[in-house]
Amino acid sequence: MNVPSVALGTWAWGDSGEAGDGYFGSRLTESGLREVVEKAQANGFTLWDTAVAYGMGRSESVLARALSGFDRGEYQLSTKFTPQIAGDGDDPVADMLEQSLDRLRTDYVDLFWIHNPADVARWTPPLIPLLKSGTIKHVGVSNHSMEEIALADRILGEAGFRVEAVQNHFSLLYRPSERTGILDHCRDHDVRFFAYMVLEQGALTGTYSPVHPLPDGSSRAAAYNRILPQLRTLTDRTAAIGDAHGASTADIATAWALAKGTTPIIGITKASHIDGLIRARDLDLAAEGIADLETLADAADVDTRGWWEREMR
Question: Which GO terms describe its molecular function (predicted)?
Answer without folding.
Answer: oxidoreductase activity
